[in-house]
Amino acid sequence: MATGGTSIPLPDVQLLSPDITVSPDNTVFTVNRSGNYLITYHVNITAALQMGTRLMINNASVSDSAIAPVVSISSFECRILRTVPAGSPISLQMYTNTAGIATLMGNGAGASLSIIRLSD
User: Cβ distance 62 to 56 under 8 Å?
Assistant: First the structure.
C-alpha cells in the first residue's frame, strides 16, 4: 500500500442489486438509485499494523466511517447510515501516513462491503 489510500478489491462472488454496479477490478460500487443506505464493512489483515480503513463516497472520505487506530490492529469493522445520491461511487480503502504493506486474510475472510438501501 502506498502512502495515502488504496482501494480494497472485494471478492468476485457478489450479490448485487440491479441498482448497484461494480467496476471490473471490484473496487468501486456505483449506487444508481438515491436513498438512505446502511453501509457496513469488515476488513481482516494477516498481521496487526497501524493502518486505517475508511469509506469513500463520491471520492471523499466519510469521516464517521474512518477507523484510525493509535496502536496496531488487524481487524476493522464499521456500520453507518448515509443518504447517498444516485450515481455515487462507493469504495472501501486502507490508508496510512507511512508506506506499508497489508495482506488481506484469505478464504473470503479478508474484506466485505454491504450497501443496503433502506428507503428513498
Answer: yes
The residue among 92, 94, 98, 68 whose CA lies nearest residue 3 is 98
Q: Which residues are within 8 A (CB) of 41 and not within 5 positions of it... i.e. 6 or more apart?
A: 53, 55, 65, 76, 77, 78, 92, 111, 112, 113, 114
| Sign of the C-alpha dihedral computed for residues 26, 50, 88 and 81 taken in this order | positive
- pLDDT tens, residue by residue, 24-80: 999 999 999 999 999 999 999 999 998 999 999 999 999 999 999 889 999 999 999
Cα separation, 34 vs 120, in Å, equals: 6
